[in-house]
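Ticket #4471: structure export looks truncated?
Reporter: QA, pipeline team
Priority: medium

Steps to reproduce: submit the single chain below to the structure queue and open the exported record.
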Amino acid sequence: MPQATDYNIANQSGANFRAELNTILAAVVSQNSGSTAPTTTYAYQLWIDTSASPNPLLKIRNGANSAFITIGDVTLTNLGLAALGGATFTGDITLNAQSDLRFADSDSSHYVAFQAPATISTNYTWTLPNADGSASQALSTNGSGTLSWASFAALATAQTFTAQQRGAITALTDGATITPDFSLANNFSVTLGGSRTLANPTNLTAGASGAIFISQDGTGSRTLAFGSYWSFSGGTAPTLTTTASAIDVLVYTVRTTGDIAATLITNIS
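Actual output as written to the record:
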């Protein structure tokens, strides 16, 4: 074991001096290799631990001279450490403490990055597809971590849907004046508890369409006036079915931000 008990050469005879010097030099050139740590240690001292399995490890003493820190496997190129100019990893790579995986632009002045969430309750692995997808496709998960390319509806492309498309029916608040917010939904419902006015909706967008289900309460005889934006056939506002619990449907399309073409389908049952 080419290790020295210390690096101080005591006053001694020539032969003993040479023997101790050779021991110290052997320790230096062998990086203090041995199956146990050197008995005398110094901050930033190197040691090759030959007891490590399966291969010897190069270790360095920390700055506090309180422990050895492993650098790498002495049997591997670059001690098994990743090279700055490129590396091939044969095991998992973990970026701790929400560190980024960054991809720099051509002059390395900016980057895009992936980052884990701040907290996560379990581990997830996503497996990428084994081929490229088609134009406009996006990655989709099967719910078990397997990703594949899938096509999705695009706003500027004509679509053929193979399943029913629908929007929620949002309840309006009954009151003397009822004001729908067209940014919330296309379809609405309201039960009239008295004679009301359906005011001009907010957030109109030309081309939007939908339906408002208008129900009489258990008393009935409720009437409904309309705001100036509502336009009906012949310019005449329709009359609700006033039977108790009757339901009418006001079908509409927004023509402009100040005009809504509408028609009333009465007494559905």
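Status: closed, not a bug. The export was complete when the record was re-opened. Leaving a note from the reviewer for reference: DSSP finds one helix and 16 strands in the chain.
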